[in-house]
Every structure is written in structure tokens, then in C-alpha cells.
Amino acid sequence: MLAERAYAKINLTLDVLGRRPDGYHEVDMVLQTIDLSDLIWLEDAPSGVIEVSSNAANIPTDARNLAVAAARALSAACGLARGVRIRIDKQIPVAAGLAGGSADAAAVLRGLNRMWQLGLSADELAAIGAQVGSDVPFCVLGGCALATGRGEQLRKVDHDLRAWVVLVRPPVFVSTAEVYGTLTPDRYAPAPASRAMIPALLRRDFDAVRRLSVNGLAAATLARYPEVRQMWQRVEQAAHVPVQMSGSGPTLYCLLPARSMAQRLYNALRGFAREVYLCRFVS
Which of 9, 15, 38, 104 is catalytic? Predict the structure, then answer.
């Protein structure tokens, strides 16, 4: 049996640039790994058998689970018919804009690459992951990256900025497809925020990074889901620092420069929010 960590991500920036001919939207995003993680356990199974179990009752354990899709994609790419039993110990909130499902899929790719001794590079695993989901390539590589195209085209951003992250998940499930479906051309970004964000990260300018964080889906999500808007307002009042949303939501986050400050905010938010998480950047 082999264990592999599956790390969540947040969007430091997310700009939607327009609709693509294939029906997807062109995005420009700066993604950052955080240390909130699931634990994936992998165990050999009879040939062709791919099974998933989990401690979480609200995720699928059939072919809809991206972990299953990842195992099948890797098997197909390598011409294998091996089986695997996958156990997902969930800590990342489900359908929260944190790429939890994609992180699990990426961990399966990395873990099976080791367990089956395939010798594939991270870039090769990321290419296979792109067949599974747009966020999977980033989750394979981790750290920080500029993601373009559908989110699968990556350029690594090697920075040394240390930051703490306090996450709050409002009690509502957000449909990414519905949020993107409400976008109109007036909400497309004229210029990507990453142009300023990446230099700020590289010079370790925490104040600039926090100030420059932007999410082009936030307005659409807040308009469609009043629970997210209400939570945003409450967090803003408690935090006295900028609040931002990850992905299509509903998870909100605040960046803090020190653990003591993050811990105080975490404690304050626990007074009115059930799902609050204290995390930090992972390089």
C-alpha cells in the first residue's frame, strides 16, 4: 500500500478573457498550492479493477470520480491493465473552488507512477492529467504557476513569498458551469491581472500580492448565490483585510503575513462560520 498527499489550491488571480471556439472559456490565472490536503491510499487490485472508497459521503465512488478517471487515463497511456483500490481520506471541502477532486486525481497519477514503477516525468503525468480535467496538470506539479488556455497550459512561478491563508466555505454548493454560463462579454478582463501579480510574488511583496488578488468570476457567483455574498460581507467586517474567492467559489480566503494574525482571524471566523481552515502556501 502506498500513500500520496493531494494538496488544494487557491486562485491568486482569475481572469476570463473570452469564449473559445471549443465552448470553453479562455482563462488567465495565478494558482497557488496550499497545505490543506487529502490523503490518498493506493493498493494493488486484480487486473482491470479500479475501485474508490472514501470517508466522505458526498463524493462519487464510481466513474464520475476524477481519481478513477486518472487511473484509467494512466493505464491507457501506458498500455496497462493493472488494477488499483483507491482510498480517499477527505479534508479538502467538496465543490469548493479548491480543486479537491483534481488534487485527488493528480495524487493518483503521482502515486501510481511510483507504485507501478513507470518512470514518467512530472510533465508527462501533467499531460495525462489534462485529459482528466483542466486543474489536474497544475495539481500534479504544485507550487505556483500561471495557468492559461482552459487552465491546462502552465508556466511555473518560483517565488519565496511566505503567506498564511484563512479559508471560509459558505454552506452552499456552487455550479461552476452555471457561473461561467452567466458571464457576458462586459465581464471579460481587458488585461490579465497576472501581469502585475507575478512580479509582486517574485519580489516577495506581500502587501502587493494581497492587493492585486482578483477573481473575474466573483461578481457572477455573488449575484447568483446570496449566501456567498452574505458570508463575504461578514468575513470582511471581521477580518479588516481584503477578502477574495477561489475558483468559482464558494470558498473565500484572506491572506495574512504571520501565523499569529491568521490564528486570530481563524478564531474570530469560527464564531459564525462552521467551515474555517488555517493554511499556508506550499512551494
Answer: 9
